[in-house]
Amino acid sequence: MKLLGGSWVKKYNSMEHKEESLFVKSIPYLDKYGILILIAIMLLVLHLLQPEVFFSWRNITNIFKQISWQAMLALGVFMVIVTAGIDLSVGSILMLSLMALAISSKAGLPWQIVILVAPAVGLVCGMINGLGITILRMPHPFIMTLGTLYIFRGVGNLISGGVPIGGFADQIRAIGNGKIKLEWLYGEGAAQYIPSSLILIIIIYFIFWVFLNQTRIGKWIYAIGGNPQAARTAGINVNRILVIVYALCGFLSGIGALILAGRTGSAYPNAGLQSELDAIAAVIIGGASFFGGRGTVLGVFAGVFIMGLLRNGLNLMNVSVFWQQVLIGSIIILAVYIDVLRRQFGTRR
Amino acid sequence: MNASTFNEVILEAKNVSKFFGTITALKDANLSLRPGEVLGVVGDNGAGKSTLMKVLSGLYNPSEGSIYFEGKEVFFSSPRDSQDLGIEMVYQDLSLAENLPIGDNIFLGREPTRSFGPIKFLDHKKRKQFTEEHLAKLKINVKSADQKVEELSGGQRQAVAIARATAFDAKIVIMDEPTAALAVKEVGMVLDLIIGLKNLGVGVIVISHRMDDIFSVSDRVMALFQGANFAESLLKETSRDEVVGWIMGKKI
Known about the structure:
By secondary structure, chain A is mainly alpha-helical. Chain A has 15 helices and 4 strands.
């Protein structure tokens, strides 16, 4: 098409070259790499404080084992937050999935079936959230998922009688508790191993990175978070995408339940209690915008890792759990403040 | 412009009404458009202009009435359906995802993909290449196709919205107040673009409050008043004073 005679040249460059302070200039870099710098500093400080223990194979694998199930919840909540939504029910979905898994295991179902129960229950719970938000036209996902936060945990206690249920097949436990021995690397009888849950995190995070960055639906998830009206006028079925996102969030919570089943060997009524808040915190620390449309899968992993490092480091130094709470809260506020600065300087209004 | 230039009606709305609860936004509105014709639509705020356009673009379903495209009745369940027929719309609020780059916005909903077995992956290279070519064709000057829309000026954003509406060989382009937020120079660009589309045989509907816009590009002008057709005329058979009167609900 030959269309225009003129040109759209804007006085863009002259505006861009206004004097800006070093601080303002550094914001895009802080935004992109700040979290890696933070992790590097934390690793260094923890190493200096605990030179014997911190960088030991045992401690590092321990951190990954501890964060493995939370990493699944955070990834699900991340996708929801990218759409400018929120899911408060992931902890309850995890608990209900875990209970369903325990009951099906106790009922004597073969492990090949039991292993599918938790992700399937999670998926259904997530779909209920998504359908409620879209079909019932809840004014905000906060309301729907606040409701299901109570409902799913209540149902979990109803089906289990409110008591812990234990005794899972080894194949089930292998997912959260398995060890891939490195004897071929370190010699016969070596204690070094890679936890199977870490492998699972890497695989799932990679799949979801591809999903969010290399597929149309992934692009649309970001578009919905940026401007849902733009997505609608582009012919995207926004409600369908939202149902998919909440369903996948539930599915990941179910995977989290599977990992937790392996780690603890039992389903218990308090499983995942308040873990939705940890998941949201990790996503925010990882640089995702609470207003939607912004954030990366790698950032989420970094956010989960930072929370794990903090807990691990403070535990090693016998700092009380109350200080951990204070620190995590402070980091959330700092992370969001960086987001505020970025929005202030990074966009034109 | 003689009447034989516009023979076949490409898009027609017949007795379209739209109710939002108890509010009547449109009542029995009619509209027709021919290829290569520029139709100016005027009316006061709340006259139903934007509502009628959103019905034509498939964003709203009409409560009553029907839409015909190339003589056949059509039903749009989403803007995708109208886009598939070649009807594109530039919305007044631009409807861009500010967090995404220019290229992603132009292709939003219609991203080029590469099949890898049963799974389709985004074709980033193709999107970037096509975006750069299309922006160059429209002489839209931006740093790069990867620049995010939130970094653009108002005029550049308007240009991106227009680029999106013209990237897929549109037969009809609907523009809702395309010059409202622009500087004088940029207004000229948009009006040139409308003439360019017209010369390619594209039917264009332009909503504008600015009489200058209407009188410099339209072949025909129609006025809505309180959700209904009020008056309509070939441009050469009317005057500014008359059209301004229509907007206020007065006929001379």
